[in-house]
Amino acid sequence: MRRAALAQANIEEQAWRQHVAAQSRNEYSHTGKLTTFCSQVRGHHASLPAIERAQYPEDYAGKLQQLIALDFDWTRSGNDPADVIEQFVAAGSFAHQGMISTASPPATPVLATPPASTTRASTSAGYQLMVSRLFGGKEPAVGNAAEGMSMSNIGRSPYEFLTREDRALLAEMYAYAQDEGVDLAHLDFLAYDIGSYRQHNNGRLMLSFNSGHSYDAEGRQVFVSFDDKDAATASRILSGTAINSTRLDQGFLRYILDPGFGALTVTSDLEFLEWMVSKFSGRGETTPSLGEKFAATYTPVSPSQKAVFHASEDVRLAPFEPHVTNVNGVWTVTEKGKAAGRTLDQVTGQSRRTSASLADQELQRSGLYLLLY
To answer: How far apart, in whole angstroms, are the C-alpha atoms of residue 308 and residue 264?
Structure first.
């Protein structure tokens, strides 16, 4: 059984690798980039069981996120994109079984002199830094999230959906964070979360996990919450006074701090978010210096690893009741089946609706039912 399960998992993994590699070649041929490819690989890596993720290089997810943030044009590098694709899809997972070769992810490309922003804010060092880190030096137009997850939108980087206001604020944050010695990856991930919120039409396209429609294998209704640390941080932000005057979008804050949305999607550090909410608010002047609090390299933890799931013992899915049953070779119409107008062919065991039931349904569909009764 174990060998069969392993073989099946390998088949599925290899099929995924072939699919994403083919998509990446198409992306490169049309845009010169591999940003969507890196996003897909990063999402796949985050979804793997911990035992499989442990087989990847330690900096695997971090390299991918850096490449996503750069939105790099690979035609400007000396790297062969085919090598980049191969190294990322070959790393980890089944490599230890000798099924595919191992390789370290490629080094993140470095732009010696990022091209100047084409916006009016090109003279701002913070704005240039933001454009360099999020867009690889070339700022795109703001994506139209009102189109929803259309074919043209679904393959685009969430950064492209940052509004002009978002970008201006993030530019100030980058300048401030750089002066404070903060690892700028903190802001890269915060920008990613804001962009994802924008890309999903300000969260309107997302369904809360806690909407009451999630169940586990035993039929119990399931809810999710932040872990204790993030829950305490979210509570402080939402109940604090800074949120009333912060320049960060309150809609985004209330969305990402709602565990039904944020517990399974947030990639940024909520404690860093709390600091930014305060610093860029009416209380900014009283916010203390960051010091070395966020100077260490920021490596995000997959939300699925931190989220806490709760299964209800009181709310369960109603057990499934078929229209017909077979006990020792004898077919029987259940009470549910009888109520639905089912009859049974004792030879084949196939059920069907009575002609009266079918006629009744047809009358209801045609609107004559109410006229007759």
So the answer is: 10
Dump pLDDT digits (tens) for 88-137.
766 544 333 333 333 444 555 543 333 443 334 333 789 999 999 999 88
Question: Quick one: 37 exposed, middle or buried, by C-beta within 10 A (0-12, 13-18, 19+)?
Answer: buried
pTM, to two decimals:
0.56
With DSSP H G I counted as helix, E B as strand and the rest as coil, what are the percentages for the chain, rounded to 5? 55, 10, 40
DSSP 323: S
Tell me the C-alpha to C-alpha distance, in Å, between residue 166 and each of 20, 22, 187, 194, 242: 31, 34, 12, 8, 18
**What letter represents residue 315's amino acid?**
V
Q: Write the DSSP symbol of residue 76.
A: G
User: Cβ–Cβ contacts within 10 Å for residue 64, how many?
Assistant: 22
Q: Are 52 and 66 in contact (CB under 8 A)?
A: no
Cβ atoms within 10 Å of 349's Cβ, excluding its own: 14
The helix/strand/coil state of 94 is coil
